[in-house]
Amino acid sequence: MSTQAAGPLVVGVDSSTQSAKVLVVDAATGRVVARGQAPHVVTGGTAADGSDLGGAGKESDPEQWWSALGAALDQCGDAARQAAAVSVAGQQHGLVTLDASGRPVRPALLWNDVRSAPQHRRLLAEHGGPGAWARRVGSVPLPAFTVTKWAWLRENEPAAADATAAVRLPHDYLTARIGGEAVTDRGDASGTGWWSPADEAYDAEILGHIGLDPKALPRVALPGEAVGTVKGGELPLPHGALVATGTGDNMAAALGLGLRPGQPVLSLGTSGTVYAVSTRRPDGDPTGTVAGFADARGDWLPLACTLNCTLAVDRVAALLGLDREDVEPGGSAVMLPFLDGERTPDLPRASGLLHGLRHDTTRGQLLQAAYDGAVFALLQALDRIVDEDVPADAPLLLIGGGARGNAWRDTVRRLSGRPVVVPEARELVALGAAAQAAGLLLGEDPAAVARRWGTARGAEYPAVPCDTAARERLAETLAAGGPLLGA
Fold this sequence. Notes:
The chain is an alpha/beta fold. It is built from 16 helices and 24 strands. The strands form seven sheets. Strands 1, 2, 3, 5, 13, 14 and 15 form a seven-stranded mixed sheet that branches.
């Protein structure tokens, strides 16, 4: 692509579960002048005794994130070498352990690694239960959260824990290697389970309980702060370019949309999420459904997340020998596609559940049931997330890879009863990181930058009547299936 630009160029990075994506963006107009992408490899890991984890483990080598970032930047050509600022957004919750030389002690435990379910239950019991945790750190720390992963490491791999001199989140690790300081931001820190939203600081008592030295953690930088400049020649970025704080992927997507308070978002990707920016600090949801995250600006981002979304439905389609769009209406089948355990609802040991088969049930109806099950939990959480003054018919901003699919979009409309807007802008996490870099460079609010870029504009789809019968079948199956789901 041409690198002719109206303003300075900035780089936004999305280091996700599956790949590194890079956008080079004109800071003045939001035009993407170059892009690159390189894959990540995720492995299952093994238990401390060498046995297979049965899908509970999800690991990735941080060194390959760095290699993939370099490869993605190389694809951007000269545009990346002209950038004046860079920001990295990364998958939340991942536990990166570094030795005294700054090298990974072991592969990172990713957000969708749920082997720490026993530690999750123990930590809740030891500190007053879910309600006390929600009040203290804004969220009930489920097995996805970093605090439970560190507790698992201490218990199952003590030698690795003892060798750890620094603990980082995925975006922290990349930011520091690019040339920034050892910092994190309030958004990503709020997903660890050891950061207090009331104090906007690490919780020393929790860190002491899990045996983690606060000195091993990065400083929490302020929103809009520059945390260094690009050093060395490992990456095709210009020496001296500004490095922004970066943030977690969901916080970056909110920036990328330029979200104002009360605009609900449903993201359909490897995970499914629903969230909205709020100016009020969340009280903490003792059920664990809603995580009381901070955003990357100074407000809040209450969010619910499911582990099983597009990948789970695609797997069901493959098992049925169907294309992902080959859905059929009707039928009584109900599917809860919890193929990798689940976070919302909190069922880390669950597997998929199918109920209500009849002789006349078709493959297409089964596939539609998988879509319904994947969307259902997110919509249940929606009412807990949006502020009371948000109208019931407020449009849902639908993002992520699934937003481009007719079956996903129609399922969300049918089960929510809300109109849907699908923004034209893609790669919103990387775009949000670019907006953060542009905001740093230009001295502007990054969300206002994204609104100036017009990132939330897109196709509008009207509301359809809510399929309350389908939602009731799903709710009844979930309630009755507790023993089979490991509840």
